[in-house]
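Design a sequence for this backbone.
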């Protein structure tokens, strides 16, 4: 790669064009005292605006943006809140009108024989086999999430709500249907 190109005709050279006597690329062209300020602006009050920096917490963690609230939230689903005519999410505010809401059930409910039923069946199996009736004791365990998504104003946000009971999806769908009625 360090060898010259044998097919070059000598007209084109890599890098910025520099005439004789011009400073090298990247150096200031003039050494005026106002170097670094925009042209036609003098340093001082009102002439130069300092760039706006996002505030940070200790350790360099960015402060989440604060959005104006129009009062108390109408309702909230996970980290999605509806306030006035806005939807407030960590992705930023979205307009409520025309929002598309969706809910997806990603949970499952398992039914199995309870541990207490197995222990009691083992203890009472000698009593004419009536101890086997304890094996009919069942317990339900629900695991998973309900995913709620909202699309509005060119933005998309999704949140996951833990499903702790089999009817968590019904609660979430009631909230989403209410949000849909507000979005019309």
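Sequence:
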């Amino acid at each position: 790669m360090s060898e010259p190109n044998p097919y070059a005709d000598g007209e084109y050279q890599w890098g910025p064009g520099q005439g004789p006597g011009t400073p090298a690329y990247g150096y200031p062209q003039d050494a005026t005292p106002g170097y670094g300020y925009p042209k036609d602006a003098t340093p001082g009050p009102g002439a130069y605006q300092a760039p706006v920096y996002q505030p940070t917490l200790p350790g360099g963690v960015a402060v989440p943006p604060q959005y104006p609230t129009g009062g108390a939230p109408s309702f909230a689903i996970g980290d999605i809140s509806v306030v006035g005519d806005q939807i407030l999410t960590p992705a930023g505010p979205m307009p409520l009108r025309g929002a598309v809401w969706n809910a997806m059930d990603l949970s499952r409910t398992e039914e199995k024989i309870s541990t207490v039923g197995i222990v009691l069946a083992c203890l009472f199996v000698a009593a004419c086999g009536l101890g086997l009736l304890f094996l009919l004791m069942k317990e339900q365990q629900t695991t998973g999430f309900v995913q709620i998504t909202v699309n509005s104003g060119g933005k998309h946000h999704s949140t996951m709500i833990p499903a702790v009971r089999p009817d968590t999806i019904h609660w979430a769908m009631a909230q989403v249907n209410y949000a849909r009625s507000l979005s019309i």
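Residues 94-182 form one domain.
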